[in-house]
């Protein structure tokens, strides 16, 4: 599926959603998921599917505006491992302090993926989930060479993440 940002799609959200408070955005809005994070988990587990309690924070876009949505009540249709670029249909979402509050009755997962965004997400997940000692296990080399063994990989990851912006 197409990336809303590059396809010229979107721009159908009310102006300045981030400034809205205690309102309901009336209507149906198709948005693209850029990232999903479990904010109920510790930093090391935020990108792992939880065994029980979770609270998803979604970074969404309509192609023009970026906004944040939070799982106000558990939404079974949503998952932490949804691919980047998947399209969601939100119906009459409540807004508090510029954040959309998601409930099962106002979220429909339409599907899709944006390959470029998903590749960047997968690279991030691999980097985050890498065992702590894996990079330093390589051994010898010149003095100081293993102080920052992931610099090249980090730089590549940063470039991939910039593509998501």
Describe the structure.
The protein has about 160 residues and is of the alpha+beta class. The chain has one domain: OB fold (Dihydrolipoamide Acetyltransferase, E2P), CATH 2.40.50. About 20% of the residues lie in helices and about 25% in strands. It has three helices and eight strands, in the order H-E-E-E-E-E-E-E-E-H-H. It has helices at about 5, 115-130, 150-165; strands spanning about 25, 30-40, 55-60, 65-70, 85-90, 95, 100, 105-110. Strands 1-6-7-4-3-2-5-8 form an eight-stranded mixed sheet, with no helix packed on it. The longest helix is centred in the last third of the chain and has 14 residues, at about 115-130.
**In total, how many beta strands?**
8
Morphology call: globular
State the secondary-structure class: alpha+beta
Name of the CATH homologous superfamily: RecQ-mediated genome instability protein Rmi1, C-terminal domain
Q: How many domain modules?
A: 1
CATH class: Mainly Beta
Q: Let me know the largest β-sheet.
A: 8 strands, mixed
Strand order of the largest sheet: 1-6-7-4-3-2-5-8
Range of helix content: 10-25%
Low-confidence stretches: 138-150
- The name of the CATH topology is OB fold (Dihydrolipoamide Acetyltransferase, E2P)
User: How many H/I helices?
Assistant: 3
Strand percentage? 25-35%
Query: What does the radius of gyration come to?
Result: 18 Å
Q: Note the gap between the termini.
A: 18 Å
Mean pLDDT: 79
